[in-house]
Amino acid sequence: MLEVQGPTLPTNPRRRRLSATLLACGAAVTATLIGASPSLAAPTTTATATATAPARAAQVAADAPEIPAANVKAHLNQLQSIANANGGNRAHGRSGYKASLDFVKAKLDAAGYTTTVQQFTTGGATGYNLIADWPGGDANHVVFAGSHLDSVTSGPGINDNGSGSAGILEVALTVAKSGYKPDKHLRFGWWGAEELGMRGSSYYVNQLPAAEKSKIDAYLNFDMIGSPNPGYFVYGYDAPLKTLFEDWFAARKIATEIDTEGDGRSDHAPFQRAGIKVGGLFSGADYIKTAAQARNWGGTAGKAFDSCYHRSCDTLSNIDDKALGNHSTAIAGAVWKLSGGGSTNPPGGTSFESKAAIAVPDNGAAVESPIAVGGLTGNAPAGLKVAVDIKHTYRGDLTVDLVGPSGRTYRLKGSDANDSAADVVATYTVDASAETANGTWKLRVQDVAPQDSGTVNSWKLTF
After folding, report:
1. What contacts 99, CB < 8 A, 6 or more positions away?
2. Are 171 and 180 a contacting pair, CB within 8 Å?
3. Of the candidates 166, 149, 148, which has an alpha carbon nearest to the alpha carbon of residue 72?
4. 3-state DSSP helix/strand/coil percent for the chain, to nearest 5?
5. How confident is the model over 132-172, as pLDDT tens digits?
6. Which residues are catalytic?
7. For residues 452 and 361, is the Cβ–Cβ distance under 8 A?
8. pTM of the predicted model, to two decimals?
9. Which long-range contacts (CB under 8 A, 24 or more apart) does 4-12 make?
């Protein structure tokens, strides 16, 4: 984010807006192989597996996927390595910036995006913007998410703004991996020379014909989303976009405030000046967290949201993983919601389902629900779909794993003491290509904390 020169910025408490509307949504996440675990005794209730083949061909509405913080952090690790190899920064006109752009572009090209590198000159050096278009969708209605990719010269800029850049990169890659088919056209942008005054984004907007500007339904900006003493700030310029994010966080019992610290200081400003609706998220920079904000969000009152803002210590250790994951998943939620599309994953393939209800004991041993799969050939797919329906009064207590026929365990959902919402109704994507398709698959569920109860209502595998 561009630094403001002059008097110290005010540190008055901001207005807090917590929407009463709760958004019920499913999630799709990429599961991680976590290694084999000892087998558990199956519950006495026997699951009945029913095969359905083929699944219906009609497109279904897609749920926004969960974006694992670990995936975003992997991109940040690469940006840190790039800075380390290029004088400690990724600033405009320096080799580290171009290497960062090349890294992001290679990921997008491999995923099937149409990428464009736009050159401009500022400060006596050549700058670069990267634009990535996902094929398809109505080109007359564009949903655009962007972030600046450059750092200041004094440090690697991992929070400012590697975090936003890595967040939208992982969302873009998830669009490709999930087989998402948006109704509207999706575009992502990584801007150069933001730290010099939004030069890259300004150049892009100024060069864009009026007819093309009118096609952008919304521009969403993400500048600093992993601050180490984080806040949850929502851009307040457009009421529907503001409400979209407020409702998403409210559904997860996370309070939000309207952003004032970043007002006009990031790449949304050129789009807003051009009459384009803008929204976005921000986790805080050098403003000071108040006691009220610390009560809402945790962290340390009386300390900056990011005390390494624009300093050499803005490294990989300057990231709050939970804030990074929450904000990245909120980005995905907005992109999916605004683009209004569906997914081809499911349907497609053969499904096996267990509808046997199995009680999950409070703070007790794990239970397993088996499904016997037969009649298939070869190995399971890299995109095995695992749909679960678990009723529970406090889902943060639950861990959920898929156990393959080999006994290997794939983590679908970890426990989270701060996730007080009820029930787990979600579709997960598992790379199970090392497993034979036929055999007994199990859903393993455990309640790891007291005072709540639940039931596995059903679960389904789609090959």
Report:
1. 82, 85, 86, 90
2. no
3. 166
4. 25, 30, 45
5. 999 999 999 999 999 999 999 999 999 999 999 999 999 99
6. 194
7. no
8. 0.66
9. 4/265, 9/261, 9/286, 9/287, 11/287, 11/288, 11/290
